[in-house]
From TrEMBL:
UniProt GO BP: blood coagulation, fibrin clot formation
EC number from the UniProt entry: 2.3.2.13
Chief location of this protein within or outside the cell: cytoplasm
Keyword Protein transport appears in the UniProt entry: no
Name of the featured protein: Coagulation factor XIII A chain
Location of the region described as Disordered in the Swiss-Prot/TrEMBL record: 1-30
Reactions performed catalytically: L-glutaminyl-[protein] + L-lysyl-[protein] = [protein]-L-lysyl-N(6)-5-L-glutamyl-[protein] + NH4(+)
Name of one Pfam family that matches: Transglut_core
GO MF entry, a single one: metal ion binding
GO cellular component: cytoplasm; extracellular region
Length: 732
């Protein structure tokens, strides 16, 4: 080490931080012990001539370790499980007089006590939980070893050496990139912190490279496929590069709690030059609109090659990329969607919606927002840092929402702890608890400055929490893993526990709600198709023997899916007279021309209806969103669907709108069939059709999926997909 670096670290630490997997220093090929006598040639002792790692896709190492899908010609193994290597020497190995060992090294400043320098001893029997190498075959000049890594080993790319002892010192093989070995987390190993005991779950949450993301709105759930591509060429190296960019110490990279927490910070670019820049303002100059991405591969590879954050992402893109990161490293992971997700700015477990005295929403005072949906991830791991029972699925979120310990990140937070209200346990449990459990509070801000709680809706937030089902593209409801059913005693107890552990609730709403009004109000929005008129029907029901007059207010807004309003495109006030024990319907027509000019990324319309019963001064409030039905892309395939054979993929789109679409980009992706690609069309006139043909040559057999997306200046979130069954190449 140079004098300058000694000075820089002097007095505080002996070596600089070891926080880069890519950085390396070669170990010496010769470590003499004392003076080598004249005439002694160390090369005459046992010498390594070659090393075989059995790293082809069909070799037992990759098949047994479930790493045969990686597009990578290096050896990739999972920790805690034996793998085979063969060492060829210059003469037959004699265990009575020859002594050698295998060494694994990671980073630039390897230390045995940090797990970055691993001398693997030759043992007679492998011991569970420990590094060791057992000789399983000796033949002529070759020795075959069964090498077992520790189930707590650092995850990353190791350099491998073989060291031979002589009476005069150690002879070591020189640096050879061909023997580099990746070691990953192992959900198949009982001693690994990410062990998952169900084979179907391991296949889904570790090995499946295509997923389904649920979005839209709780009464109109929409789906889109996402290519995780965790096995694609270059992705594993990029995931290691992400941790390098975070300057994460190598010694912590065997801990899934630390890896997932660093990942949640690094997938977003806020404050750390991470992978993706978030943008929710509908302006995507100098980048790709979030809805145009079809998967993670393009994003991650662009991040590594440019060494700059990629533009742009929103919650499902962050979740898609984060899922790739976790699965690629071997941590079981899935994307979850929470419908009506609270973004509670002050984590006080209530979403305060302030109303004017006339029932209109006061946008200055209303700071909290309810997202139509929000996607985050769950990662599977033990939590030895928490009491027993809080391992399993952990919520981790890489969408930059709130600051956690000085960085935009969230989790891992135990889902079990969230359900039971134990929000004292790290990390960020109060924020996730609020996302699924907050109350919606309607408060009238009076002109004299006082606030009156008009209504409390305890069931709106966290209405439905879903993920993709195992082994299929359907939806699995996991709401009950996050919360007890509304009204159950356990649900009340969980809330009280959360409050006891410091979740704030400054406004006591117990008993505040006025006696139930004798008038009910609800409304329905008919299925809305982009570019067409739609109808909204409000129903008022009088449950009393009294005669009432009602003043109602409708506000129709174009909203971001985050619940933030962009523009009010219609407002209407009307009076209703209700006879005793009767109901009345009011229909409001929304014309396409009223909303089309201001549409946003996700074509979401939000309706807010408030009504005041003039005789009792009761305020009724209801809000609903609807997501417009958008045209789809059509994908067709011609030719043999066989590995190694050409097939023709056609993507087709017809413009159903009355306006010309300009600057149209169509993206096409299909893991194992084609690399992500895109094509631009300057314009698509009304009712005209465009076609794009590409020749693809699949390299992975089995059920695969082609995914396409389209974005333009005025229309986005257009998707299409096609399931294809790729056959194996016939044996010659």
């Amino acid at each position: 080490m140079s004098e300058t670096s000694r000075v820089a670290f002097g007095g505080r630490r002996a070596v600089p931080p070891n926080n880069s997997n890519a950085a390396e220093d070669d170990l010496p090929t010769l470590e003499p012990q004392g003076v080598v006598p004249r005439g002694v040639n160390l090369q005459e002792f046992l010498n390594v001539t070659s090393i075989h790692l059995f790293k082809e896709r069909w070799d037992t190492n990759k098949v047994d370790h479930h790493t045969d899908k990686y597009e990578n010609n290096k050896l990739i193994v999972r920790r805690g499980q034996p793998f085979y290597i063969q060492i060829d020497f210059n003469r037959p190995y004699d265990p009575r007089r020859d002594l050698f060992r295998v060494e694994y090294v990671i980073g630039r400043y390897p230390q045995e006590n940090k797990g970055t320098y691993i001398p693997v001893p030759i043992v007679s029997e492998l011991q569970s939980g420990k590094w060791g190498a057992k000789i399983v075959m000796r033949e002529d000049r070759s020795v075959r070893l069964s090498v077992q890594s520790s189930p707590e080993c650092i995850v990353g790319k190791f350099r491998m050496y073989v060291a031979v002892w002589t009476p005069y010192g150690i002879i070591r093989t020189s640096r050879n990139p061909e023997t580099d070995t990746y070691i990953l987390f192992n959900p198949w190993c009982e001693d690994d912190a990410v062990y998952l005991d169900n084979e179907k779950e391991r296949e889904e949450y570790v090995l499946n490279d295509i997923g389904v993301i649920f979005y839209g709105e709780v009464n109109d759930i929409k789906t889109r496929s996402w290519s995780y591509g965790q096995f694609e060429d270059g992705i594993l190296d990029t995931c290691l590069y992400v941790m390098d960019r975070a300057q994460m110490d190598l010694s912590g990279r065997g801990n899934p709690i630390k890896v997932s927490r660093v990942g949640s910070a690094m997938v977003n670019a806020k404050d750390d030059e991470g992978v993706l820049v978030g943008s929710w303002d509908n302006i995507y100059a100098y980048g790709v609109p979030p809805s145009a991405w079809t998967g993670s591969v393009d994003i991650l590879l662009e991040y590594q090659s440019s060494e700059n954050p990629v533009r742009y992402g929103q919650c499902w893109v962050f979740a898609g990329v984060f899922n790739t990161f976790l699965r690629c490293l071997g941590i079981p992971a899935r994307i979850v969607t929470n419908y009506f997700s609270a973004h509670d700015n002050d984590a006080n477990l209530q979403m305060d919606i302030f109303l004017e005295e006339d029932g209109n929403v006061n946008s200055k005072l209303t700071k909290d927002s309810v997202w139509n949906y929000h996607c985050w991830n769950e990662a599977w791991m033990t939590r030895p840092d928490l009491p027993v029972g809080f391992g399993g699925w952990q919520a981790v979120d890489s969408t930059p929402q709130e600051n956690s310990d000085g960085m935009y990140r969230c989790g891992p937070a135990s889902v079990q702890a969230i359900k039971h209200g134990h929000v004292c346990f790290q990390f960020d449990a109060p924020f996730v608890f609020a996302e699924v459990n907050s109350d919606l509070i309607y408060i009238t801000a009076k002109k004299d400055g006082t606030h009156v709680v008009e209504n409390v809706d305890a069931t709106h937030i966290g209405k439905l929490i879903v993920t993709k089902q195992i082994g299929g593209d359907g939806m699995m409801d996991i709401t009950d893993t996050y919360k007890f059913q509304e009204g159950q005693e356990e649900e009340r107890l969980a809330l009280e526990t959360a409050l006891m552990y410091g979740a704030k609730k400054p406004l006591s709403t117990e008993g505040v709600v006025k006696s139930r009004s004798k008038v009910d109000m609800d409304f329905e929005v008919e299925n809305a198709v982009l570019g067409k008129d739609l109808k909204l029907t409000i129903t008022f029901r009088n449950n009393s023997h009294n005669h009432y007059t009602i003043t109602a207010y409708l506000s129709a807004n174009i909203t971001f899916y985050t619940g933030v309003s962009k523009a009010e495109f219609k407002k209407e006030t009307f009076d209703v007279t209700l006879e005793p024990l009767s109901f009345k319907k009011e229909a409001v027509l929304i014309q396409a021309g009223e909303y089309m000019g201001q549409l946003l990324e996700q074509a979401s319309l939000h309706f807010f209806v408030t009504a005041r019963v003039n005789e009792t001064r009761d305020v009724l409030a209801k809000q609903k969103s609807t997501v417009l039905t958008i045209p789809e892309l059509i994908i067709k395939v011609r030719g043999a669907q066989v590995v190694g054979s050409d097939m023709i993929v056609t993507v087709e789109f017809t413009n159903p709108l009355k306006e010309t679409l300009r600057n149209v980009w169509i993206h096409l992706d299909g893991p194992g069939i084609t690399r992500p690609m895109r094509k631009m069309f300057r314009e698509i006139r009304p009712n005209s059709t465009v076609q794009w043909e590409e020749v693809c040559r699949p390299w992975v057999s089995g059920p695969r999926k082609l995914i396409a997306s389209m974005s333009s200046d005025s229309l986005r979130h257009v998707y299409g997909e096609l399931d294809v069954q790729i056959q194996r190449r016939p044996a010659m």
